[in-house]
Amino acid sequence: MTHQHNRTCAACRQRPAWAARWICVPCYLALREDLHGLVGDYRWLGECMVLLPPSWRTSSIRAFRTETPIPFDARMSLQRDRITETLAYWARMVVEAKRPRPWPPHDVTVEATAPWLTTQLGWIVRQEAAGDFDREIRGLRVDTDRVAPRELEWRSLPLPCPRCGQLALSHNGGLVACRRGGCGHAMTLGEYHQLEDEIAAALAERRQAQDA
Ligand SMILES: [Zn+2]
Ligand SMILES: [Zn+2]
């Protein structure tokens, strides 16, 4: 029995599926985009997880042989593991089920499995599991955005860090944090502006003293 001609897309459950596939054309294109996007998500989580404003901090680890705590968010590390494991799982499924058996990805890193799965996508969407695959890939992207929203992209600030003295302060619109590994100083943008005022006042005072 075949439902090939009146099958509904297993991803959006609205549009008709594309010929012998289990999903429609727009969902296929979105899925390909999401697979590609997971490589960037993985890197982005890595950037975010080592330096976070205090409100994000769910746990901290101590740098080996130093007493300086490194801000560290376990949720981002876990999300990275989930991306790696989910892609490796699906790659293994394809290798086991597809005939002739394809060469597996050369390793289980996201950089290897995501593009490899993209090359297998034409076959995957012809399998009944296509809907599950789509949901899991989309779920990973949604969860990444929840754990580490993109609007928290950091921009550099001109003043040195009041704790370590390095030009390493950045802000994400509201929060300011030192990006130097091992420092972990964080403050609000209001506190940063206060620091600016203090430095400006100190400079004005020095100038006055020189003029006198
Ligand atoms: Zn669809
Ligand atoms: Zn610092």
TrEMBL record:
Top-level taxonomic group: Bacteria
Entry protein name: Uncharacterized protein
Organism encoding this protein: Actinocrinis puniceicyclus
